[in-house]
Amino acid sequence: MIRLSSVDKSYGSLKVLHGVDAEISEGETFAIIGPNGAGKTTLFKVMTGEIGCEAGSVEFLGKDVTRDPAYKRTRAGMGRTFQVARVFKEMTAEENLIVAVEARLQNTGKSDAPWYAVKPSSATLDEVHSILVRLSLDKKARTPASELSHGDKKRLELGITLAGRPKVLMLDEPTAGMSPSDRVGVTELIRDISGKGSGLTVVMTEHDMGVIFGLADRIMVMNQGRKIAQGSIEEIRANPVVREVYLGKEAHHA
Ligand SMILES: Nc1ncnc2c1ncn2[C@@H]1O[C@H](COP(=O)(O)OP(=O)(O)OP(=O)(O)O)[C@@H](O)[C@H]1O
């Protein structure tokens, strides 16, 4: 689904990624973890096309997308959420999703309506309703996004991304800044969305080890811009280098 080969990235004179390789397979939930400043978000942005890299390559669905900007990767099926949810604040939850569904239909040439159509089709409304139910936001359909709780905003953003029918869902710290109960709710939601049979591939960065261990099929651990380990939850838990560099530090914080 995604292959990174020998990716180098610097910010000015600061080199933050050193020859990073990664392969993400179809249908898996792949988590990137590591201490603060390890380069997780930078690697994530190189995958999504938000930033470029000086050396190495990025393939998506077997195609070299290293030079493709983010919007092209989105259109090719890479859906992304942000650490701070991006929603239209003045619009209701339902309106946000209508825009997202209509945008997908326009982009895929499946809408007969002109882009300025003011009334969504009944098919769009049905799809929006089913997304709202899936996200447990149906009772807040008419609430302006600005009035939603932080957790509900993140749910809505996830819904907007899903409305684009992505092949891979890129989640940058999906539970950042959430209350413990919202965190559990969003973890369950991601598990439900990416469950067996969905075919959806998920790539995520996350600080909360509970979320990671509850979701990931495979974990890649980064430290100081390098991949230091990769494997299943059990392999990562048992890896002495990871324990020292990352889990050990987490344990000290706890
Ligand atoms: N836009 C930028 N300009 C300059 N330096 C940056 C920029 N973004 C990140 N860095 C630096 O690059 C390094 C890696 O940062 P990055 O955000 O990728 O790490 P991270 O593992 O995601 O960290 P965190 O867990 O704190 O989010 C850090 O030293 C950071 O200060």
From TrEMBL:
Pfam families with a match to the protein in the record: ABC_tran, BCA_ABC_TP_C
GO MF annotation, one: ATP binding
SUPFAM superfamilies in UniProt: P-loop containing nucleoside triphosphate hydrolases
Signal sequence, start to end: none
InterPro entries on file: AAA+_ATPase, ABC_AA/LPS_Transport, ABC_transporter-like_ATP-bd, ABC_transporter-like_CS, BCA_ABC_TP_C, P-loop_NTPase
Record's keyword annotation contains Cytoplasm: no
Domain ABC transporter: 2-249
Keywords: ATP-binding, Nucleotide-binding, Transport
Hydrolase in keyword set: no
TM stretches of this protein: none
Similarity-based family: Belongs to the ABC transporter superfamily.
Protein name stated in the entry: ABC transporter ATP-binding protein
Originating organism: Aminobacter carboxidus
